[in-house]
Amino acid sequence: MLKLGVPSKGRLMDKTFDWFGARGVGLKRTGSEREYAGAVEGVEGCELHLLSAGEIPAALADGRIHLGVTGTDLVREKIAGWEQRIEELEPLGFGQANLVIAVPAFWADVDTLDDLDAAAAAFRASHGHRLRIATKYHRLIREFLRQNGVADYALVDSQGATEGTVKNETAEAIADITSSGETLRANHLKILADGLVHRSQATLFRSRKAEWSAEDRATLATLKGVLGI
Amino acid sequence: MLKDVPREEVTRLIGLFEAAGAVRVGADVLQPADTLLDLYGEEIRARAYVTHDPLRGELMLRPDFTVPVVQAHMAQGQEPARYCYAGTVFRMQEADTGRPSEFEQVGFELFDRGDRARADAEVFSLMSQCLEGRGLRAAIGDIGLLSAAVAGLSTSEKRRAALMRHLWRPRRFRALLDRFGGRSAVPASRAALLARMESEAAEKVLSGAGVAIGKRRADEVLARMATLQADAAEPPIPEAELGLLDDLLGVRASPTDALEHLRDLAVDMPALTPALDNFAARLDALADAGIDLATLAFEGSFGRTLLEYYDGFVFGFFAPERPDLPAVASGGRYDALCRVLGQGREIPAVGAVIRPALLAEIGEAG
Known about the structure:
heterodimer; A: alpha/beta; 2 domains; 12 strands; B: BirA Bifunctional Protein, domain 2; 9-stranded mixed sheet
């Protein structure tokens, strides 16, 4: 049985259902609202698994599901060497968000990563600790800053309301997902000119690690045909 | 699966190190993360395993023995001192390279305020003796030459400090050098800011930029704006000096040929001369210790991407038939790291580690 993992709630679930529905594949919950069971209509041999969006990358990487819908940001953040374990099949055109690095807008002297690095060095010298960047995307940000040669920073974990950390003085800068930049502006923050770390969107992924029987392969071919991908 | 520790190699190496006067020391597997993070920065998280202790906070599985050995030495404090150790170190592999994430290291560290060239040669020749007959090739470098060349650039102190800070990040170092040398353009936003500052007071530019929030205060922003203005007035680093630095970084030759070539370069940059004298003294000390200099390969960039942040002599022993393997042994001088750990105290140190499992893997004579 080909297992398709889809976010279990919210806009991401609704839009995923819409996307598949518009292409003739009916995804739906079975049982009550509280039950995470579902069905796939229109393609034989395929079953729906409703999972938390954050768990889908690991489920794909371990091969517990064959296909899954989640954000490209989560796959890159959670799975080291993700390309070896997961393949991108099709971007779904929703859930777009940019992972960016933002600093207080009043930092007139800082507009690039180069500036951020220099400011971090000076900050560490005068405050005695590294310049803190609040984020939940630790791996992506660390790798991005390493590639761009930014030093003397510390990542501090923030699982929510990240934009508020600067005002609260628990961080000096942030790295977070934004779609319009509105929340950043409202919190007196600006995005660095070269601070775009990743452009994310909801994407249909295929697990390379799952067991692919001949039947599963056939089902995938049928599904792709129906979806037109 | 239980891994095979090459016990015979470990015993043999420890025996040789002890015979060379080293006291055997141990170290906790769990090391306080903050010390390592302050030394190596956030990048260490990609290399070391971090775990959490309910009482002691963040801890790391030791990625090497350097920090605990230096700390043990500072507590003990007699000099000169020689230490050796053997144990597992842990290195996280973020990409699937097939390299082990835990392996045995056997090491030797020498703390000596006396003749540095002689101390460098002592450690190198001890390693060389330990590895004899295994068909390994040694590469050497000298970060001291590189920092002398940076210190000799005719540019502002701030620019030299910025370059020095990124000595161990080759890409960043190159980008800074290109900018300071006028090889790359000033970023548009920087140019715009500088243009505004010509006609407007910095305070006005700042207040127009937004509400002051966070721990980095307005005076710090103003201070850096002034720095940027001063930097913009700085003439580019002369092309000849950039060429000289490229030349130094690109040298690959026998140490004797390299020395001769670098002496030629020093005619145009006299600041190199003291570092070259150190380099020459080290070569003499190595020859005195019985090392055949013709068997060594000098590389101008060697040691710039190692975790350890060596700042003087650096070396590695490699299996020429096995380019897939990392260095079987590596080491160098790390005075600056000790200065940070000793909070300004000067503790000259040079050391090296051998990976016995690699030695066992390549077998006799390659």
